[in-house]
Amino acid sequence: YADVKAAFEYYLQNYNQGRPIVIASHSQGTVHAKRLIKEFFDQKPLQKQLVAAYLVGIATQPDTFGSIKACENGSQTGCFVSWNTYARDYFPSWYKDGLNTSVSTNPLTWRLDEEFAPRTLSKGGVGLKFTFMPEAVDAQNHAGMLWINKPYVKGRWLLKTKIWHRADYNLFYGNIRENVKNRIDNYLLMTDQK
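Above: the chain sequence. Below: its structure as tokens.
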């Protein structure tokens, strides 16, 4: 964390110049990102520059921060999104260690509800060697987890994994890319009006 903090402080001092900030993290990086947000953004002046935080791959509770809440839709700013991807109907052994109460954002709809999102909502994922996979996956929030059916890729019948942690970002790449742009555009629109 000391390295993350030092890098972020250097960025603020030398490059940010008051611009909006997007935080994106995964797994252990999310542990560090949550700490960084608490230290630099939550109930602090820098919070007004936060477009959104993508805190993926580690269970993140709704009350993790004092004044930064989970995003409820795809255009909201100043909030966070989070998800942990598993095969449909799978419950990991650590499910009741905080995953069961964590925020789960569906990256195909950017909502917190449990409505099923078909793969037609997928803007594409990326696979090995950054190969693009159109309509890669469907998704549904379920009790703190993001459930998917096997990705719709060549040879999908060979896929046996139930834990899609390594692909939390890859499977939803197109949607995430579009969403970051949408949130930044909305943030800039709102700040221009003030």
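The beta strands are 21-26, 50-56, 79-81, 85-87, 125-126, 132-133, 140-142, 145-148.
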